[in-house]
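Researcher: Here's the sequence for the chain we discussed earlier.
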Amino acid sequence: MTIKKDTIPMTLPLLRDRIDAIDAQIQDLINERAACAQKVAEVKLAEQGDHNVVFYRPEREAQVLRRVMERNKGPLGNEEMAKIFRQVMSSCLALERPMRIAFLGPEGTFTQQAALKHFGQSIVSAPMAAIDEVFREVESGAANYGVVPVENSTEGVVNHTLDSFRGSRLKICGEVEVRIHHNLLVAPNIAPDDVTHIYSHQQSLAQCRAWLDRYWPHAERVAVSSNAEGARLAAEAGKNGKAVAAIAGDIACQLYGLEVVSANIEDHPENTTRFLIIGNEKVPASGKDKTSLLVSAKNEPGALYRLLESFERHGVDMTRLETRPSLISKWGYVFYIDFWGHCEDEACQVVIDELRERASEVKVLGSYPVAVL
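Model: Thanks. This is the structure I predict for it:
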């Protein structure tokens, strides 16, 4: 049933009736889309076989979400509209085959938040105790994809993630950015003024340092393995009547039944962490991509200059350069480089070929869609 806006008097009962009619149309269309997704799965299985079929296509999903944002006319904002479609796509994909996603745990971390933001709610979450365990879980085939943090806008690069790529065959399949909002949390029975210790990950403590210095200088800051672990410890301490607080995000607050004493206590409001999606497949070009490389430079004068000069000469925009010890030779280094474009783009191919001529080793870690959400 189609209802014209200009024929409806602006009365509350009629507006509610119209909303109900629209909801019914939306529901029918979502189920129609889900049925199409099931047909897609059947075609893939028939053409590729059960062992070779790939249901999740990062480049396809990025293209769909970009088109959603491009054609959006409001009043909902582009990102809100894309989030709605993200969940619809997640639910439809789960009909084809639910994906198991490994992430740096425990449950309640910002890495889990990143996984849910990128893949939607219709996944099987698998928290891992360490970054290298996320890599192993995906390499073994126990998880379809993994999510690991790679850099924070205020605290810099996550070295453990970069180092894990050296001996791994996994590819970067995507990226997702999460705005980091920290909250000071306590158990419901704890008076905030009685707090003597504050638990959180060392990076979270660092990201809230100025706020803590100003408002909680008396409380001892205790670094733990993750902010979710800090929230768990605060909840456990609260059961025993101990005045302990934690710094964590909303998801940990809900998971461990804590209360917010102060919200958004991070020193920099734009504080953002970038996460990488790791998997076994190469990702075709989506139209707006990044490529990441690992490059071992020759130990000779001007080696780094000759590597970087290729990017400038061929007009390829390098977005990040990180240096790590090589672990092979004393004072040897490897470089992690991000740049705009897909490795199959002509200019990018030329740059990579020149790097291989000038470096000891060049490893393409992956080309993947730029974060949409």
